[in-house]
Amino acid sequence: MHYAPISAHNRLVLASQSPRRKRLLEQMRIPFEAVPSRVHEHAEADNSIRLAKKLAIDKAIDVWPGSGGRWVLGADTIVEIDEIVLGKPNDEAHARQMLQTLSGKTHRVLTGFSLLTPEGALAHVEVVATDVKIKELSQDEIKRYIQTGEPFGKAGSYAIQGIGAFMVESITGSYTNVVGLPVYAVIKALLDSGALEGYPIVSSPT
Amino acid sequence: MHYAPISAHNRLVLASQSPRRKRLLEQMRIPFEAVPSRVHEHAEADNSIRLAKKLAIDKAIDVWPGSGGRWVLGADTIVEIDEIVLGKPNDEAHARQMLQTLSGKTHRVLTGFSLLTPEGALAHVEVVATDVKIKELSQDEIKRYIQTGEPFGKAGSYAIQGIGAFMVESITGSYTNVVGLPVYAVIKALLDSGALEGYPIVSSPT
User: Fold this and answer.
1) Looking at residue B137, what DSSP letter applies?
2) Which of A5, B54, B87, B115 is deepest in the core (most CB within 10 A)?
3) pLDDT in tens, B36-94
């Protein structure tokens, strides 16, 4: 099957309201519309790769019926350390505990993403992993970081694209994957599946 | 010597007008003022590490006399592949040539940064290196990327924080170093030299 590619008149549907994911698609100049999914992020799976895949697919499928026959992209980001998945913090004590767990160690960030065709078939699913090395954090640093308010709403209680960058010694892999969407892999999947006919998108007169 | 730390009333002087460096300091909530230096970036040195160091120091020293007794940060970013330094492209043909050189290979991005005390003494100088793996680029991709206009004004003819992210398969090291300022190392240097008394900066009532 051949479907109309993504364009300003046929925007990609992003099954997410994450401001980080929206900013990444804007950075890449991909025309899109964000639609929140109602998928519960506390689903379970026997390992984190399967969990990230499952949530990415579930989110896209949830949003597809209202997508009006357009391509749909779903994604889910997981922070994992010593085989334990760190979610978003419930409160200050929870954020403090997670930051202490990450301190002085390397953890892994997994983003699963899925692409559905305009007819709702799964065109692509993939999980990308990035290793992130965090410096030793003092009690004062953790306290000050929590005071900024940034840890809340973030998996693992930090934002690599924010003030949290002060604790990131180095990464191995994709940076945008840690932010929420592995841009290199997503563009490749859009091209391979026919959702894009070329990249970068060259703007045509509209 | 003990000098007043950086604050909203005693802003860091950034010896650069790079919008990327400004954005990174904003991301880190460091109060600063950007002052352009008149240092010629085509200086020479026998190796790229010394060149990045020298330019970072030269830029800070150039700006210091007008800094009004404040801390001064200088920085310079160099893209290097096979011991050749890639500057900013002069024109389309030059950009095409650089992108072909980077295609399918891993190159190194070096950012040198220097910190001067309010009295103009060198408090810190350091060069941080990040390895960047670029995908195989087709002629069509290079042509389209140049058409976006993004390569111009960028060392190595690409912007990792822009559309150029589509070609970055992975990195090893600091991401912000590739953008223009290695945030983890800079914050550490500011703390070690007494330019900051704690980080993250906790906003006090002013």
Assistant:
1) P
2) B115
3) 999 987 666 678 999 999 999 999 999 999 999 999 999 999 999 999 999 999 999 99
Q: Which residues of A touch B184 (CB under 8 A)?
A: 135, 165-170
Chain A positions touching B183 (Cβ under 8 A) are 165-166, 168
> Which residues, listed in sequence order, are joined to residue A73 by a DSSP beta bridge?
A14, A115
Q: CA dist A206 to A203, B147, B191, Å?
A: 9, 17, 52
What ipTM was estimated for this complex? 0.95
Nearest CA in chain A to B166: A184
- Nearest residue on chain B to A147, alpha-carbon basis: B202
Domains, in order of start, for chain A: 12-192 (3.90.950.10)
**Residue in B147, B166, B174 closest to A184 by CB:** B166
- Whether A169 and B184 lie within 8 Å, measured CB to CB: yes
- Shortest Cα distance, chain A CAs vs residue B41, angstroms: 27
Return the number of other C-beta atoms located less than 10 Å from residue B49's C-beta. Answer: 15
Q: Which residues, 6 or more positions from B61, have their beta carbon under 8 angstroms from its beta carbon? A: B74, B116, B120
Hey, which residues does B13 pair with through a beta bridge? B33, B72
Gap between the Cα atoms of B44 and B52, Å rounded = 10
Q: Do A166 and B145 touch (CB under 8 A)?
A: no
* Nearest in space to A17 (alpha carbons), one of A29, A30, A33: A33
Residue B206: per-residue pLDDT: 46
> What are the two backbone dihedrals, phi and then psi, of residue B186, each rounded to the nearest 5 degrees?
-65, -45
Contact B12, B71 (CB under 8 A): yes
CB contact under 8 A, A167 and B184: yes
Q: What pLDDT is attached to residue A44?
A: 65
Dihedral sign computed on CA atoms, order A80, A17, A20, A14? positive
Is B100 in contact with B137 (CB distance < 8 Å)?
Answer: yes
* CB atoms inside a 10 Å sphere around CB A75: 25
d(CA A4, CA A19): 27
Q: Are residues A174 and B170, on separate chains, in Cβ contact within 8 Å?
A: yes
